[in-house]
Amino acid sequence: MKTQEAINTFVKETGGWVAAQLEACTRCGMCAEACHFYQATGNPEYAPVWKLELLRRAYEQRFTISGKARLALGIDKPITDADLTHWSTLLYEACTLCNKCSMVCPMGIDIGPLLHNVRSALSEAEVVPLELMAAVNKQVTEGSPLGVTDSVWDDRMEWVADEWEVELPIDVKGADMLVVFSSIEIMKFPENISAIAKILNKAGEKWTLSRQGREVVNFGFYEGSEKRTKLFMQRVFDAAKALGVKRVLVTECGHAYDALRWTAANIMDVPAGLEVIHIAGLIGDYVRSGRIKLKPGAYDNDGTITFHDACKIQRRGGHIKEPREVLNILAPHAFKEMTPNKEEAICCGGGGGVIAIKAADPQRYAVFQLKIDQMKKVGAKTVAMTCSNCRLQFTDSVKHFNVDVKIAGLSQMVADALED
Ligand code: SF4
Ligand code: SF4
Q1: Distance, CA 361 to ligand 1 centroid (Å)?
Q2: Parallel, antiparallel, or unpaired: how do β-strands 304-307 and 275-278 relate?
Q3: Which of 25, 97, 221, 371 to mutate to test the pocket of ligand 2 (most atoms within 8 A of CB)?
Q4: Which of 2, 160, 270, 368 satisfies CB 3.0 to 4.6 Å to 397 for a cystine?
């Protein structure tokens, strides 16, 4: 194990901002209750502040007089291989990087990015869970964590176009918008491809898919590897440049949106003038501007519909109003909010790569019981969402707990309710 690499990474990442964040922590513990893993299990090690402990130890032992003294006197322990192995379970199997803890800290500490720094160090030490790393390696070599190679992608697109009788433009130079799906949509929810194509075609959008930039999900981002995060985003940006588009549309994938929209500009060159947008926001724009019209009340007779906020699209991405505006047209009487919701919503429990790790299943399911309670309280018969990773977690977990709730992608609902 490369323990020293992990410590070097902590030290390298500890600039003034990280130091100020760590110094500001009063150990009040208020972030614990914000974390769905702590809430669902009561395990004190799942408290966000404890997940940051290795970063704090590395910082204090290297940069503060008291930390150096505590280390010399044996009060504090140096970081060991065993620590890294243990924190790997906390960071990858009991944290979805949902960023809710950042919202409650009375000291204003932005815990989410610090947790990302801890994952980066664990990645350097090569203590990433094997299944997650296998998916990362597959994305490096095959272009997709779910094995969507060039030929699989070609076959899949041809099949979707035939099956749903929808036009899918591919590699069209001079299009305005590059649309990039996640392999979860391509392999598990292919109806999303036809749904989004129908919406774009109806709105008269000049859009295209790309063979070169065909995968939006970013397992390097889950891993915490800046190198691989950039590699996967570069493929999308290169495709956008080659096609000369003005906008990249991220479909129903939350982490991909976070990476491309917010992280990319901080770690790499984003092609000048290129805008990254999410389908949730785009649908809202189309509806507001009248570019698409929806059948009012189309879903008002199917029982209560609720909406699950995805951490990276709603809390972090800001697309909170648009899905609600759409649902208030589609189901003005049947749409009801779960509590808490919007910025304060509870994560589904499967994000951040957690759903890819078998050992995380017990806590992933424990967390989902919080969602079941929320859905039951509102009497939901359908739960809509804008992230296919959430949708995978919901689909798997309602089956696991035998809950009678229909799981729906918002794009699909919109496509099915388009006015002619
Ligand atoms: S809420 Fe903020 S100040 Fe309190 S323990 Fe958590 S990180 Fe530290
Ligand atoms: S980012 Fe989310 S899952 Fe991770 S520690 Fe914070 S609240 Fe918990």
Answers
A1: 27
A2: unpaired
A3: 97
A4: 368
